[in-house]
Amino acid sequence: VKTKKMDIAELCLSKMKNAAASKAFRQAKKEPEMEARVAMLAIQLGMYDEAEKLYKQAGRFDLLTKFLMARGHWDSALENAEKQDRVHLRTTHYMLAKHLESIGDFESAISQFENAKAQSQEVPRMLYDAQQINRLQTYVSQSNDTTLHQWWAQYCEGHGNYQEAFKYYIKAHDFLALVRMNCFMGQWDKAKEIVGASGDRAAAFHLARQFEIQNEHDEAIKFFKIAKRYKHALRVAIKKDNAQTVMSIALESPQNVKKDAAEYFENKGMMDKAVLLHQKGGNLSRAIELCFKEELYDELGMMSDDLDENVDSKLLQRCAEFFVDHGKFDKAVMMLVNAKEVQRALELCQSKNVEITEDIAKLMVPSKDSMDPEERKELILRIADVSENQNNFATAAKMYVQAGDKLSAMKALIRSGKTEKIIYFAVLSRKKELYVLAANYLQTLEWYSDDEITNSISSFYKKAKAWEKLATFYTQRAEVEISQMANYEKALESLNSSKTVMAKVKSSVSKSRLDTIKNRIYLVERYLELKKLLAKNNSSLVTGANELMADIKSDPESVRLGHIYALLVEYYYRSGDKQQAFEEIQKMKSYPDIDVNYYLEYNMIKDIYATLGEAMDEDPNDANHGTSDP
Question: What is the mean pLDDT of the chain?
Answer without folding.
Answer: 82
